[in-house]
Amino acid sequence: MELTTEQQDIIKVIRDFVDRDVLPKASEFDHADEFPESMVETLRELGLFGITIPEQYGGLGLDLTTYALVIKELSRGWISLAGVVNTHFMSAWMIENFGTEEQRQRYLPRMATGELRSAYSMTEPHAGSDVQAIRTRATADGDGFRIDGQKMWATNGLRAGMIMLLAVTDADADPRHRGMTAFIVEKDAETHEQPGLIVPPQLKKLGYKGVESTELVFDGFHVDRDAVLGGEEGLNQGFKYFMAAVELGRVNVGARAVGLATSAFEAAIRYAQQRETFGKRISQHQAIQLKLAQMGTKIRAAELMVIDAAQRKASGDRADLEAGMAKLFATETAQECVVEAMRIHGGYGYSQEFVVERLYRDAPLLILGEGTNEIQQLLIARRLLEQYAI
Ligand SMILES: Cc1cc2nc3c(=O)[nH]c(=O)nc-3n(C[C@H](O)[C@H](O)[C@H](O)COP(=O)(O)OP(=O)(O)OC[C@H]3O[C@@H](n4cnc5c(N)ncnc54)[C@H](O)[C@@H]3O)c2cc1C
């Protein structure tokens, strides 16, 4: 994996930021479930909210591989930081690729600076894996649409100033996905109640703290007709747009998993060279060496798979198989690595004084986010059966 000089420079900047400002404080913010305002400000200053937005719209115009490498570095510090950026990145990518020129000009420059941040919402209380079962309706109403329904698990749901929202526009469509539209919903950031939209207090979670996950309750929320992503041509195309973005999300979750697993590995291999039992460092016991070897090898493989998927998606080729495989392998590796890191830490891994405790609570999100790993395996198998059909 050869990195360009530009990629190496960017990674160094992020790694320094993570070592200096994130790793020493992340667990404190996590335990307090506090939004990391100052870290997010640094992300803005570094231009990370516009990392892949083309330069003509004020972004850095970097490629998807660089994005994945940056997400890995951020997640080595704290996956919640990657969470603040990711729904925003997916929404910006959708506007760039499926929006009208007017929408690109209206949103991308403000998104690139991080002045306007976006959530991305398709999940509902009764429908996660089965996206076609969503019920939130957008009904034609005068010069626009009236939105009614309830969304669940919207990351950045409160602090975002806009939401990329999937809603049903033709309830009679068969198959159902042909009757869904993506809307760019502008909202007040930091406000729990505004006309037609309530953002209840954030959901309490096992990990992935600091960044809020919320419900969104729409009751007669009005959007103008130009909120339809892609304009008139975008009507009833939303499912397709969201699924294309989910593929990117899978690359992102894979990269997060590599970062988190690296953090667990680094903590474990450091601790193994400090702790002594039976007259020698535990790194000298073969049982511990086997764990370190497995962790290091799988993390390396996961990273290569994530980069491969990012490159393929960036080339414009179909990348669902590669993205699915990378997400599956990297996230299972992360889950395995946090458990192994905790075992290597013995009782101390269970203590809030050590980073492993936080990583242990953060890792499971990666297994279920952007499509659970069960669904991932079904998609992978479907594609393999297509490729190897007899
Ligand atoms: C912290 C957090 C943040 C999130 N952020 C967002 C966000 O920003 N935007 C957003 O839209 N969503 C978000 N989500 C939602 C997330 O994508 C869903 O939770 C996930 O897709 C799973 O859906 P579900 O929870 O409804 O589980 P279900 O779909 O109810 O699945 C339950 C179980 O059944 C299994 N299962 C379901 N169908 C099948 C099948 N056909 N075959 C085999 N097994 C199956 C699943 O794998 C799982 O094990 C977030 C979730 C969390 C926890």
UniProtKB/TrEMBL annotation:
Residues annotated as domain Acyl-CoA oxidase/dehydrogenase middle: 119-219
One Pfam match: Acyl-CoA_dh_N
Gene Ontology MF term list: acyl-CoA dehydrogenase activity; flavin adenine dinucleotide binding
Cofactor needs: FAD
Record-annotated Acyl-CoA dehydrogenase/oxidase N-terminal domain positions: 4-115
InterPro entries hit by this protein: Acyl-CoA_Oxase/DH_mid-dom, Acyl-CoA_Oxase/DH_mid-dom_sf, AcylCo_DH-like_C, AcylCo_DH/oxidase_C, AcylCoA_DH/ox_N, AcylCoA_DH/ox_N_sf, AcylCoA_DH/oxidase_NM_dom_sf
Keywords noted in UniProt: FAD, Flavoprotein, Oxidoreductase
Superkingdom classification of source: Bacteria
Residue ranges occupied by any Acyl-CoA dehydrogenase/oxidase C-terminal domain in the UniProt entry: 236-385
Sequence similarity: Belongs to the acyl-CoA dehydrogenase family.
This protein's name: Butyryl-CoA dehydrogenase
Organism: Rhodococcus wratislaviensis (Tsukamurella wratislaviensis)
